């Protein structure tokens, strides 16, 4: 595992917990829904391609949403989300493989498994359409990318700088997410995406992650080259009903159609 000593204590605690988790007891084989195709369909429909995230809580947010994840997921799709991300990390994000399984059965858009996957057997816990692989924490990134593909998953390789982009490309990544959050300090800077995006090959599907809180942020990331946006807290952070999640999602999926903040 790379640079474990250079991450924030909260992230190190998550990694330590992930390292003790067991994998699945059988090798999965998935018939995945295409994330790039879902982005293209959203574009054709005049929507900004958004991956809306079902995230009950996190170390960087306050409180916990106890809504049924299926209700939230359906509301996000009603709001125009091209795809969904579901946290399966239990200790620090309140997620579970069971929540992802239920969400994927309830919607017809691609579902990304968001977790800290450190070993090949971690891929075999639950079926999803895509899986997050964080380049910083995987010494043998090519092996994990290949293992994910062998099971039918679409690997979304997360990077934070140009060196990690090179590792992702060398590992064969076709979907790349640039995380605006520095996992060493947990600070967010949208200029990270603007700096790193030019390093990503044009034929890759490029996703901006973290820190997108306003429609202006969404437009900024799209202008910088994002094919899609991964948005969690700005959609989930509401005390209202799941319907408010639909409205929050719609605020971003229509960010390119009219002027608003």
Automatic annotation (TrEMBL):
CDD domains (alphabetical): IGPS
InterPro entries: Aldolase_TIM, Indglycph_syn_Halo_TrpC, Indole-3-glycerol_P_synth, Indole-3-glycerol_P_synth_dom, Indole-3-GlycerolPSynthase_CS, RibuloseP-bd_barrel
Record domain Indole-3-glycerol phosphate synthase: where: 27-241
Superkingdom of the source species: Archaea
EC top class, as a word: lyase
PROSITE patterns per the UniProt record, alphabetical: IGPS
Family of the protein in this entry: Belongs to the TrpC family.
Annotated protein name in UniProt: Indole-3-glycerol phosphate synthase
Organism: Candidatus Halobonum tyrrellensis G22
Gene this protein is translated from: trpC
């Amino acid at each position: 595992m790379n640079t474990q000593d250079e991450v924030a204590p909260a992230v190190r605690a998550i990694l330590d917990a992930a390292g003790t988790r067991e994998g699945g007891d059988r090798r999965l084989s998935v018939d995945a829904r295409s994330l790039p195709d879902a982005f293209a369909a959203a574009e054709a429909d005049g929507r900004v391609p958004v991956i809306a995230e079902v995230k009950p809580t996190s170390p960087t947010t306050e409180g916990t949403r106890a809504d049924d994840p299926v209700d939230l997921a359906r509301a996000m799709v009603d709001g125009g989300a091209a795809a969904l991300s579901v946290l399966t990390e239990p200790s620090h994000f309140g997620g579970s493989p069971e929540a992802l399984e239920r969400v994927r059965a309830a919607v017809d858009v691609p579902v990304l498994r968001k977790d800290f996957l450190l070993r090949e057997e971690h891929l075999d816990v639950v079926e999803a359409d895509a899986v997050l692989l964080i380049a910083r924490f995987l010494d043998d990134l090519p092996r994990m990318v290949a293992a994910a593909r062998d099971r039918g998953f679409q690997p979304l390789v997360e990077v934070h700088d140009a060196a990690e982009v090179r590792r992702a490309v060398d590992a064969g990544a076709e979907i790349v997410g640039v995380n605006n959050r520095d996992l060493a300090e947990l600070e967010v800077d949208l200029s990270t995406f603007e700096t790193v995006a030019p390093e990503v090959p044009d034929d890759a599907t490029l996703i901006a992650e973290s820190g997108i809180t306003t429609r202006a942020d969404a437009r900024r990331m799209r202008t910088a080259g994002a094919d899609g946006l991964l948005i969690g807290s700005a959609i989930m952070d509401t005390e209202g009903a799941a319907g408010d999640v639909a409205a929050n999602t719609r605020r971003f999926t229509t960010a390119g159609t009219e002027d608003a903040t």
